[in-house]
Amino acid sequence: MNSFKYQWIAQNNEYDNDFKTKIQKAGLKFSPAFLRLCWNRGLTSPELIEEAINQQPTIFHDPFALYQMDLTIERIQKAVSQEENILIYGDYDADGITSTLILQEAIEAIGGKVQVYLPNRFIDGYGPNIKRYQEFVDAGIHLIITVDNGVAGHQAIDYAMQSGVDVIVTDHHEIQESLPNAFSIIHPRHPKGNYPFGELSGAGVALKVATALLEEIPTEAIELAAIGTVADMVSLTDENRTIVLSGLTLMKETQRVGLQLLLKDSLEKNDKINVETIGFIIGPRLNAVGRLGDPTPALEFLSTFEDMRAQELLVYLNHQNTKRQELVKEITHSIIHKVESLEEVPLVIIAGEAEWHPGVLGIVASRLTEKYQCPVLLFHYDDERKIYKGSGRSIEHINLFNWLSEHREWLMNFGGHSQAAGLTVEEKNWDSFLKAMADDAEAKRDVILQPIPLQIDLEMQADEVSIQLIEEINLLGPFGIDNPKPIVAFYDVLIKEKRLMGNDKQHVKMEIKTFEEDKNLTGIAFSMAKVLNEVKVGSRISLVGDLSINEWRNKQNAQLIVKDFGSNGPLWVDCRASVVPPDLYQLPSSLFVFDSKKYCDLFADKIHNSSKVITYFDQLESELDGLANLVIMEPPQDLTQLKIIYQKVEWKKIYLGSYVSESKYLSGTPTRKNFADLYRFLQINKEFKLEQLGQVAKELQIPLVKIKTMIVVFFEANFVNIENGLVTMQEHRQEKIDLLSLPAMQKYQSAMKAEALLNYETIDVIQQWIDEEII
Fold this sequence. Notes:
Elements: E1 2-3, E2 6-9, H1 17-26, H2 32-40, H3 46-53, H4 69-81, E3 85-89, H5 94-109, E4 113-117, H6 130-138, E5 143-147, H7 154-162, E6 166-170, E7 184-186, H8 202-214, H9 219-231, H10 238-251, H11 257-266, H12 275-292, H13 296-303, H14 307-340, E8 349-353, H15 361-372, E9 376-382, E10 387-393, H16 400-405, E11 413-416, E12 420-426, H17 427-443, H18 445-449, E13 452-455, E14 458-459, H19 467-474, E15 488-501, E16 507-514, E17 520-525, E18 540-552, E19 555-567, E20 571-574, E21 590-594, H20 597-603, E22 612-615, E23 629-632, H21 639-646, E24 653-656, H22 664-667, H23 672-685, E25 687-689, H24 693-700, H25 704-716, E26 720-723, E27 726-729, H26 743-760, H27 763-773
Helix pairs in contact: 5-8, 5-9, 5-13, 6-7, 8-9, 9-10, 9-12, 11-14, 12-13, 12-14, 13-14, 14-15, 24-25, 25-26
C-alpha cells in the first residue's frame, strides 16, 4: 500500500463460529461490522465486550494503595486540627488548575485553612520555585502540598523542609534519577509503591488524596478530575475511564456556574457533552489563561458560584483562547515557511525567537510534529536572563524525555514525558545543545524516518456504515490515549465528488463509494487540501479514518474523518489538458516518457535534475534506479510499450499527461473510401512531395494523421515509392491486397487503442485495465 503519511497495519480477521455462537447465546445484538471490530481489538468473548462497552464502570482502586497515602492523610489531618496554614501549590494548565481546586475543596470541607497558588509560567516557571517557596515560608505557611508537580523540585523542596515546613508532593510526571526529600510523595508510579494503575493525571492523583481524606469519593470533584484527565491526555483505561465517564455524566447536571455558562454557550444540548467537549471546549480555555499569563482567573471560573462574576470570567477565558489561537497560527506559519524553504525537512526541528510567545510553543510544536513527523523543540529567547526556554513534542518511536536525558549536560533543567517535555537552555550552551541534538538526530536517522505505524481496526464497505454502527462503536469510548478511536479502512473506493471547504479552503469534502455497492459515504479530510490536490474525481484510492455522526438541522449523517489515504499500486494523477502544467516539469525523481524523439529532446532541458526523459523505444536498464514517479507525456504506439515501463519500477505515482498533437482516435480509422479517394488522387497526379501532405489532406478532406498512415500503407503494398521526399505512383498490380491488415494499419489501430484508453477513459477505467492486464 502506497500511503501518504502512515504505515498501515491491517487487521481484518473474521471471527470464528464459536465466537458467533457465544454472542448469540449471550443475547448481544450488534451489527456484524461491530463484532468484527471487537474481535480485532481482542474482545473475543461476550464478557469482554460487555466490560468494554459498559458506560458506568466502577473501577476505582483503594487510594491507600498509593505509597505513603496513610502518612500524607495523617499530616493533612494534623495540619487541620492544629489550624496550620496550608498552601496548595498547583500548576498553570487545566490538569494543574483542576488538581488545585479538588484538593482545596476537600481540605476546606474538613475545616482546613487553605491558600492556593498557581504559578505564572513566565515568572515562576514550572514546578516548585525556590523564591516563591521562600516567600510562603516567610509568610507563615506550615504545610505545602504540590499538585501536578513536585517530583523534579529538589531545590525548593529541600529549602522548605530545612526551614521546618513540610512538603507533600502529589504528582504524576516522569520520575527522574532521584526523588526530592519531601515529607511524603504520592505518585502512582512511586518506585517503592505497588499501585495497580500508574497512569493517573495530576487531577486523578488529587482525587485519590481527596477521597482518602474525606473517606468517600467527593462527587463534586469527579467532574474536575475528568477535565484534568482528558485535558492532560493520559491513558483513558482502567480507573481513568471510570473518572471520565462518571465526570461527563455529572457534568450534565453541574452546579458549577462557570461550567454551566460555558456549556450553554458552546452546546445546543447538555446531553451532547462528551470527551470532545472537554478536549476542544473546556480544556483549551482553561489552558489558554495559563499559557498567556496568570492562570488564577481559570481557577476562579471553576470555583465561583456568582453568576455575574462567572459571566465576566467566561468572556475573559474566551478572549484569551482567541488570542492563543491567533498566536499559534502566526508562529506555526512562520516556522512552516522557514522549513519549506530548506532542501529537506530536518530530522529534528529546533528553533528559538525572542518574539515567540512562550505560552503557546507546546501547541505549535505538536502541530509541527504531526505535520513533519519528526521531533520538534521550540524556544522563547529571554534576552534579560540569557536563556532559551522551550517546549518539545516527539514522534511515537522517539522517547523525548530519554533523549533529552542523554544531553542533560547542556540543559539548565527539563522534565516531562516520552512524547512531551519542557526544558531550559542557557545561551552559552545553546550552540552546543543544537550541535549535540543534530548529531544525535543523524545517528537516529533510520529511527526518526521510519513510517509511523497506524493500526487499522476494521476493513469495511460503504454499505456497512450506519448511524447504528457508529453508536455501537462509541460505546467503546471514551477514546484517547491507550484506547484510540477505531480506525476503519475503505480500500479501492471511487471518488464521486470532491470540493474544498473552510475559509482558507484547506479542508476537503468527498463523496466516495465502493465498487461492490452503490451507496455513497461522505469523507472529510481536514487540512489535507494540498496533499489531496492530485486526487481527482474519478480516481480510485483507499482511505482510512474514524467514523462520526454529523448533525445538521436535526438530521444525522454518517461520515468518515479521513486520517490518511493511499493506493494499491501507484497513485494515478490526472494531468490531461490542452497544455502541459508548468509545475509538471519540476517533479523530482520522475521518468518522463514520450513517443516522439523530437518532443523528448525538446523537453529534456526543462525537467528537474533528479528526473530522466526517454522514449518508449529506448532501452530500459538500471538508469531507472531511484525514480519514484512515472509521467506519461504521450500515449505509446502500443500499450505493450507502457506495460514494459510500468513493470520496471514499483512506481509511487503515475502522472497521466498523454498529450497528442494529432489525434488518431478522434480522426478515426482510415476507411476503404479514404483509400479509394487517395488512390484516385495518385492516379491523376502520379507524384507529389511529402511536404505537400497537408495540401493533399485538405483537398481530399481527410485528416492529415490519416493521410500520413495511408501513404505508408500504400508504400507497404507497393502502390507507391517514396524516395528523397517524393511520393511516386507505382505500376498497377493485379493481386488483391487487404490494405486494412497491413502493418502500418495495425500500428495505427494499436495507437488508437492506446490513445482511447489513456486520453479518453476515466482514471478508474485505466486503473482497472492495469489490474487486469499487468498486475
